[in-house]
Amino acid sequence: MNGPYLSAALGVCWRYLHNLYTRPSMFIPSLVFPLFFLAAFAGGLSVVGDAPNFGYYDFTAFQFCFILIQASTLAGVFAGFSIASDFEQGMGRRMMMATAHRSSIVLGYTLGAAARLAVTWTVVTGAALLGGMEVAGGGLDLAGIYSIALLSNIAALLFAAGIALRFRSIQAGPLMQLPVFIILFLAPVYVPQELLTGWIEPTASVNPITALLNAARSLMAGEPTGVLTAFVVVLGMIALMAVWALSGMRKAETAG
Amino acid sequence: MTMTMGEDNSIEAEGLVREFKNGPRAVDGIDLRVEPGEIYGFLGPNGAGKSTTVLMLTTLLPPTAGRASVGGFDVVEQGPEVRSVIGAALQEAALDPHLTAREHMRLQTALQGLPHDERKSRGDELIDRVGLSEAADRKVGGYSGGMKRRLDLALALVHRPRVLFLDEPTTGLDPQSRTSLWDEVSGLAAEQGVTVFLTTQYLEEADQLADRVGIINDGRIVAEGTPAELKSEIGRPSVEISTRDEARREEAAALLSRFGSPIPTGRGAVEVRLDHGIDDLGGIVREFDAAGIELASLVLNEPTLDDVFLAKTGRHLEGEGAEEAGEGES
User: Fold this and answer.
1) Candidate CATH numbers 3.30.70.2120, 3.60.15.10, 3.30.70.980, 3.30.300.160; the one for domain B236-302
2) Which of A42, A81, A58 is nearest to A169 (CA)?
3) A254: nearest CB among B62, B80, B111
4) Nearest CB to A23: which of B81, B92, B98?
5) Rounded CA gap, B187 and B321, in Å?
6) A14, A20, A89, A97: which to substitute to probe chain B, counting the most B Cβ within 10 Å?
7) Entry pTM
8) CA B15 – CA B29 distance, rounded (Å)
9) A250 part of contact set with chain B, CB < 8 Å
10) Per the CB 3.0–4.6 Å rule, which of A156, B33, B104, B190 could disulfide with A76?
């Protein structure tokens, strides 16, 4: 990765963050969304934590892990919206024209999507702590949780970028958001995986998000299990989605 | 920037084709060569294939067939190298309404990979050069069309390109902004040796600005040369008269036909293509004087690029009738 390549990526990243944080209409919904889920799940559904065999030490912490991964993942998707919008309105063409290596554009949005997590995480974590969340894990465990969230953000951004670069229209927004939303909610969101029954149980067992969620919850509890598997899964998703995003860039180049 | 020895600032295309799925051939086998430091005007109506050609030459669209090189680099095989030596201001100025001009410069200098210590000074220099210093910290969303075009041009120059592509840069601009942009483009070619590939549907623009003009119609180049060469191909000027006394119109037509071949005109006047060019003008005035036919008007029409376009394609360039009607009057 040479100087001009990184320079171009940082330029794309800077503009993305600049526009995000100077336009409340773009920024605030992405914060309200996880806060709403946190209030609804951790607050409104807290009685679920009293269910027999629930077996987790704190329902707010249990839900926080999901909300953190969900917020991080959707932050990646929202960055995909920006890519689609930029290509629809001509800025994509400016970037394609000005950068020697166009994969730097995807890297720029990836950095931007990751950087925006700093604010999202601060707000969501702050709200959860204010809501009485107990953190049983140590510093390294927490680093593990946030690393999983960061990597899921990157995977989601690359997925959304692949869609955005193929369609180059904000009308493709639902195609970016819906699959991610569905896969998130087909994981054990409200109760541990062991308590799932019916069709959701086998679905959740093959859902890659389940591995991330279980690992994050185990780290939060200070009893890490399946963490290596979670990292292998999320890194595999990133590798797959990187190929998807870069082939999307080829499509965009061919379309002109 | 001045051009240094050994730098290839040329543009070449051989048999360049772009065919869209389920559509016509937007570009249908274009051959052209633009010499270093030349301003090449690519003239044609809407949909002729001008912008598609530019998209291919700027590596934004791969050709379906044929080959092209810009600055000595192949547009398909050496895209990154091509992009490093070209600047482009495309038809729709792709600007972010939420950024200021200065922020656009910051973005563009980063995208082009300019050294950090050079970015601010280069941005300020270009903003000043296109006369946007006072508006530099205003969001571009509030700019006029002319200001956006000037900023777009400045952004295209950030990395000191050797070849500049301007796709209909003055469309929608007021005459003052248009003239100002022409001056800037002329200066780039004359003083800095930048090769300019300019698409336009304005005859006047091609006539005044371009060293050479290629006329494109239905994806093919139908004529190419300097504006003077193209006009001389069409030949001699014409003279158009109208009489004060409408009843003597036929008599005037007969008299005028002695000086050349009649041209259809729908304006209640009579017009002939002069056999001996402008030299006939004195004789015409004397003949009418001698015949006692009073003239309401006498207009000498020099051949225009629209005449060239008409001769080559059988139709006028869209939207140029009014503009051209006033040209060449004497």
Assistant:
1) 3.30.70.980
2) A81
3) B62
4) B98
5) 29
6) A97
7) 0.83
8) 4
9) no
10) A156
